[in-house]
Amino acid sequence: MYDFEFEKPGSIAEAVAALSGEDAQALGGGQTLIPTLKQRLNAPGKLVSLTGIAEMRGVCVGDGGEVIIGGATPHAVVAAGAGAYPALAALAGQIGDPAVRNRGTIGGSLANNDPAACYPAAALGSGAVIVTNAREIAADDYFQGMFTTALEEGEIITEVRFPVPQAAHYEKFVQPASRFALTGVFVARFADGVRVAVTGASEEGVFRWTDAEAALSETFAPEAIDGLNVAAEGMIGDLHGTPDYRAHLVKVITKRAVKAAQ
Amino acid sequence: MPKDSGIGASSKRREDVRFLTGAGNYTDDINIHGQAYVHFLRSDVAHGRITSLDTAAAAAMPGVVRIFTGADFEGVGGLPCGWQITDRHGAPMQEPAHPVLAQGKVRHVGDPIAAVIAETAEQARDAAEAIGVDIEELPAVVDMKAALAEGSVKVHDDLSSNLCYDWGFVEENREAVDKAIADAAHVTTLELVNNRLVANPMEPRVAVGDYSRATDESTLYTTSQNPHVIRLLMGAFVLGIPEHKLRVVAPDVGGGFGTKIFHYAEEAFCTFAARALNRPVKWTASRSEAFISDAHGRDHVTKIELALDADNNFTAVRTETYANMGAYLSTFAPSVPTWLHGTLMAGNYRTPLIYVNVKAVFTNTVPVDAYRGAGRPEATYQLERVIDKAARELGVDPIALRRQNFISEFPYATPVAVEYDTGDYVATMDKLEEIADLSGFAARRAESEARGMLRGLGVNCYIEACGIAPSNLVGQLGARAGLYDAATVRVNATGSISVMVGAHSHGQGHETSFPQVVAEMLGIDESMIDIVHGDSSKIPFGMGTYGSRSIAVCGSAMVRATEKIVNKAKKIAAHLLEAAEADIELKDGQFSVAGTDKSVAWGDVTLAAYVPHNYPLEDIEPGLEETAFYDPANFTYPSGAYCCEVEVDPETGKVTIERFSAADDFGNIINPMIVSGQVHGGIAQGVGQALLEQAVYDADGQLLSASYMDYAMPRADDVPFYTVDHSCATPCTHNPLGVKGCGEAGAIGSPPSVVNAVIDALHSGGMTHVSHIDMPVSPSRVWSAMQG
Lengths: 262, 788
Hints:
heterodimer; A: alpha+beta; Enolase-like, domain 1; 3 domains; 5-stranded antiparallel β-sheet; 4-stranded antiparallel β-sheet; 22% strand; B: Aldehyde Oxidoreductase, domain 3
């Protein structure tokens, strides 16, 4: 990797200041950024590590019952500590391998918005709120396409607030090499309706399958979406699956997620 | 009672202590005072002409010692090919030059253009980025059939085409085979792809070159399966260094799987540069570099036809294969699709007429060479798949069809030039049916179906030619080297023994299994014996480890040397015991006079050899050290029968392997635990090929699966607990241990049964239109096949 400056601030305010400089980049767990640096595909002037900020680490339950996760919390801590939201804890426990789960952070994953990552499905499927140093962003407004988010330059995800649904499940069909989601579906049933978020499948990144949401809000059962289909157009086609295959998987995996959530 | 030492004992692998505690000494662990580091600037395009190469700015970068380009190698030899193939018309194969660094043209992504040597690896990499290189990109030749089309762009301008050779075997049978197929009661045809693989040993390749001005000696430390082969090829053909001035050391090596047999440009470069700079030079491949510079494996496109008579007897086999050579001929590349493939097309069956045609093709891809099994998996896969398809077409049981056509009398001369010495294919199939619990399959299928899953069962047999090989035979077939092996048994004064062997252990456990043989022969404890390997300055000139040859060839040399030791030790013992040599018996480490209670211990005899105060100096020399070279009379022919049970998820196409059983005939076995481990590893690689792995190039010659994000290696949870059995043993008739070799069997024998099982599962689900799915049988491919 190329040379860079390195800072590890102890507070959000210090991190914001450190990131305001020219060519600075935030570093979460580094599970995407570090390999990119090692391949010399990225050359930030300064890396600002967020993992030393105590106020950004940990899992708790808010006054409204929502599960709040600090932006610099590793997946393993979520897997062990988000018992109030079992589907979210289970999702975190399926990301990567133990080394990844003990380094990678929820804020890093959401800021990167890999089209095959798991956390975006949880955030969008739960209708989570992405809290930054500057504002609160609804998940529906946050994800703006593959590797693209509503974050401004230098903006830090400090925490993520997940409303806890009545029932939820994340079903992941893995890409055999990377074990990212070839298609992953997060289904969450709230009192006012069902949300279905799909990752791994679309060229636009994580998306809500609104037809399925409507059908499942009527009847929360796998059969409710029997008559629905997802168009192959816009789905990812690569070594591991054609657009047709991914479109097919979206439906199959959604049904499985619903069945498991029932 | 299982033995606890010697031949047949499952002695614990003594080398694992150092491997598992971080005490191994791998090539990257070797750091020589004053060493500089190499970074290779590699082509990022598949095919192009280098129009300018400017190293001035890079040379001025911090820490740069020197930058080498192709121009520095104009007077130096290219990388040699170790095997020549003669084509159907009697002409030699087309053999392009293979420069150490590109000369004017780049021919695959990863082709080295320049090498920067700097004080640190990072400085070398920094400077490599500052090299100004302009490449006029040319259309990439990727698809083999397109490469052979009239007017195709040529990978090598000085060759007449992209065809390396058009090989026919047995050419004299061509018309008879055509006629037999035309006249057959039934012909089953199958077109298939044997997918291109990247070997991916855990340890990437490393080379450290060193040079002594005092002695004019060059030393290369390298990740190799065969240090003497590297010394021979590099010294004689590339750099012109005589053997006595060139030492090649392959210390602990973290997996080879074939891809570390070959002589690579980086090895020659580091040796050359160390001498040019009078300073040690080190190169360590990154994993990304390994993907685009290690020789790949397989990559055959095949059409096979199997002819049967009205009674379902096999009457003829005809194949046409396109074999990818990549951009250059790697060391043994031409032999893989020919002599290691065509000679195995009889399989385990009495097929009287066989014709194999292979067109080897140059493309703008990484060179392709031997990978665990090397030609034999390709032969086994097509034959065992087409037999399965034939059974389905004829409505007969696939096991019964195989049994009906088994070779049952040995020795058996096949129509493809080899003679199987021993085997018992009925016994291995019987054993397989038992250990795989075939009678319980129907119940297991019903249980799967109750869960909404399809269950399939696939079986195949395999035969391989191992213990490579008789030198006089392989010489006739085009090998440019001998394939004997050698061992020196050095008995020390106190009775401990060092055995210097030409074989190289890079995971096979030789340090454990070889001493078991010597211990058995001498009746002493295994711990008294150590194996020395991997250093051309310490070991006799052996040819290394590949082709499941170590115990069969080098082990036989070790037996011969140990026999010489025993003979000499008996003479010494006879002297000490004042008895006739003919009356001396060796048992449990004691030399005794037959019929008496007079004896001397092993250690008394060895001490006498080195402190020859009371010694028959007039009859024999002091000391106790013997060397033997061994060149086998034939290949060995391990065989077996494998069974795979899969579940297929009908909604997603995902295949999971539920059971895998292997019944192998390896002849006699030295260490059953190590043999089982070799079979386990081989099956994991075979399952990897069948379900997961593929190296994919796009039309521009870019490797799409160039990292573990896209190249799927098998993980522990991709494979089941195996049931392996090697109790069916028909000992090899022509080597002293009766051993056949076991290293490649799992990788050869497992892919067809996996695919056969998937097809069986789909048929059980009513998808009878699916007759074949190419490997890797990924969820996406299975689902697409199910759609019809």
